[in-house]
Amino acid sequence: MNNSPSLNNLRILDLTRIWAGPLGTRTLGDFGADVIKVSDPRNPISSEAHVNEKLNRNKKNIALRLDTKKGRDIFLELVRISDVLVENYRPRVMRNFNLTYDDIKKVNPNIIMCSMPGFGLDGPYSEFPAFGSTAEAMSGIVSMMGYEENHPIQTGMSYADPVSAINLVGTLLTYARHRSITGEGCFIEIDLSDSPLGGIGEYIVANSVTGYQRPIQGNSHEQFSPHDAFPSKNTDEWIAISITTENEWGKFKEITSIESLNDSKFSSFKSRKKHEVDLYEIISKWTQKFSSTELMELLQQNEIPAGRLSNYHQILSDPHLNSREYFVDFSDINQRYDGQAIPGHQLSKEKWTPMDELGKSSKYILRNYLGYTQSEIDSLEEEEIIKPATGDYFI
Amino acid sequence: MEKSYQQKQNLYEPLKGIKVVEVAQGVAGPHCGKILAGLGAEVLKVEIPPDGDWSRKFGPMIPSKDDLESSALFLHNNTGKKSVVMDWTEKEGFVNLQNLINKSDILIEDWDLKDRKSLNISKDFFIKQNPKLIEMCVTAFGLSGPYSTYKSTPMILFALGGFMNIMGSPDKKPIMLPGFQADYVTGINANNAIQIALWERDSISNKGQFLELSMIETLINLHQAPFEMDHGGNRQRMGHRQSALSAKGFPPGVSSVPAEDGYLTFGGGSQPIFETLCLMLGRPELIETEEFQNVFKNPESGVLMDKYMIDWMKGKTKQEVFIEVSTQWLLPVSPINTIRDILEDEQFNHKNAFQEIDHPMVGLAKYARLPFSINNKKLNIKRAPLLGENSNE
User: Fold this and answer.
1) Which residue, of A180, B111, B249, B366, is most buried by count of CB atoms within 10 Å of its CB?
2) pLDDT digit string (tens) for A273-295?
3) Do the Cβ atoms of A209 and B72 come within 8 Å?
4) Which domains occur in chain B, in start order?
5) Which of B15, B57, B177 should be substituted to probe chain A, the one whose Cβ sees the most A Cβ atoms within 10 Å?
6) Regarding the domain delimited by A227-316, which CATH topology (the fold level of the hierarchy) does it fall under?
7) Tell me: the pLDDT tens digits for A29-82?
């Protein structure tokens, strides 16, 4: 068995920022790909709240002014030696740099280039600014989320971003493999607003036939009851309980020993659904006697689907995740981050590196990848082509 | 890489020649199989008689000539596959399944510890016979650890994955995303793991792998904020506003607010966006009012700003607001589209996001294509198979 990580024969040129792009290329880095992140030296990478640190591990950073001829030339030298280029600027940015796929392909005809715009590189909304939070609204998923009919609320987590990030990984690798076999590169476009559609595909099929729009209904479920978050004895700690079969309902009644649950109005899914308000009130009284962890353990021991609503502290100390050695500790910056969910031959964890500060690997890359001499590097620094600025910058 | 694929594959069927056996049911495993089929792989879905995949009986349902061919959930997640019926829980069926797996590149299964025990198989059972096999095992919690025997539903995973806690209003109970999102993101990640293993197999090792993927770990990878937050606390639910990533919080105006015929979400978080929004609303004085600018420290400012935005949108439709704000003010905003809205949307249709496909039992319906384009072209998908449609092949 070989011990080298799966992607250590791939070089990724990474022009991504904020979230979707960096999360996607992070996965490639975790599997040993050589990820070179190119940043504008005038914009320090914010270390605010460690968000960028979390998303940019296992990458080398080069600071480069793409709006200068020399900087752009260096970038094209990097294009020449890379397998993949990923970017997630607004469409006009790459056009203004003269770095569209047509430009890139002239330098490296076999490269795989991937753009991740908000609504698309072309079409009526292509020039509109977009974030993960607005792209999720565009995608339709938010229209089914909330407490009351006709009052949608955003997810709060910019769902379009992480879904686009995971869509990036497999798509890129499919075409990297295709290129290895056929020699053919290509241009991939992943639109933030398009990414969540796969996760609501059943509603798209249904709507196109019958006009069905799934109503906004809190946590209520079409086929399970009870199905909701219930309060525990601690403030804002909740337990999710979802009873999926009559067998589980029977066990639930047994465990809780609540006399009133034996009432005939709770005897079937349909009638429980009809009397859900009463039912939830009864269950809430019982759940408030315990902590959410106690409830989860008690119910799961009796084969009833239940899970506590973990907060961030609970995630970090979660016994299951820790027993699977999921987390990774970066002792230099005293941070504990999520590991990599995707199984396979990852870079071994002792080799993981925390985020490169802006321009940290500039000289290394110029010298070792592109053969620049010390005096050439010095003059690039003098001309501020690669010199990092200091200060704070919006994440 | 092996040249044997070269004759078969092209940009629009890059996995042509790859054979996949799928015994996984429901959403996560099948969604992965659907992606592989969409990329040109031959995906054989092996279903247990008499009813096959349980998602055939799970809603939303649409009118059909056959009850087992009426689930929109199944139709969506099984496009492009073949279906054979085989009871591999019985001895003879299992031998037949084994023969299929021995001739395949990829196996997608969802056997948890209990299933593996009753099938009496170890992790290397199939790979021993077919060393090039990539076996994807998709379960809720994985095959080790204290939750590995736990039961789950999408809501349970959203709860333990730390998302439910940050979704919904701070003064109400937390809520979850609609449908099977935990399963869908895991299905995408299953494809990611398979593509990484295929890359390794076909470019370096010539060997397959057993891949154990859990839904819980997939979800936890999708948090933007670090779990150790700078204010020492937890990420908060912010209702119709975006949940803050740090103690600095977001300025007011990063929220979902109603226009005349529906809601829009205004994105943001930065000072320039906040200032442009104030100018748009005709309230430049707010820019100078420092205590107004942090909704985290001053929730009242969020409420006021929402009111100003709602007033500004009076008499306008959500689409009118969207176009005006995006083109005149260059602010990130989007209507909260319904499913009907997206099917009729100019941009989605320009990008060819949907494909109309005929099906012998349900007729014409629109399907979301795979979420990417290659050289500006979306890949074509084919309809889902009828139960056992390919049993005789």
Assistant:
1) B249
2) 999 999 999 999 999 999 999 99
3) yes
4) 3-221+367-378 (3.40.50.10540), 256-336 (3.30.1540.10)
5) B177
6) formyl-coa transferase, domain 3 (3.30.1540)
7) 999 999 999 999 988 777 677 888 899 999 999 999 999 999 999 999 999 999
